[in-house]
Amino acid sequence: MAEADSGRRSRITLIAVDQSEWSEQAFEWFMENIYLEGDQVILLSVVEQLHLPFLADAVVIEEWKNEVHKMEEELKALERKYIDRCSDLRTPIRFRVEQGKPGEKICEIALKEKATLIVLGSRGSGLIRRTVLGSVSNYVIHHTKIPVILCPKDYL
């Protein structure tokens, strides 16, 4: 690990972000309570790939292209929002976008980046929704050996 100017080891934190208020609140909580100058912060947004239907006609293809363009614009806006916020805080960050299943990608990228901490915001889904659809935070907590901070939606 790289040494920070203060002589302590630099920490690498991966923060999962999306367009939700929960991920923004988790980011703000981390910055106010955990971040120390010299820490490396990686913001990761994971998008599930939009698949084009197998037997798509011209109308469906055009709608698919529009959805892909919309998703790209939303990602650019998300990146700009966090870059601007980190500039205000005078905090250098790296912003990454990956395609895949969010829980799996968060674990994979945290490992590749040698993260020492993962920060997630929780939507606070109910039992039925979590059972049927699964939970990104639940997946990450049970599939990584890296410490995880989960900021519940009602905490902030």
From TrEMBL:
Pfam families: Usp. Gene3D superfamilies: HUPs (3.40.50.620). Residues 13-151 form the UspA domain. PANTHER family: USP DOMAIN-CONTAINING PROTEIN, USPA DOMAIN-CONTAINING PROTEIN. This is UspA domain-containing protein. It comes from Pocillopora damicornis.
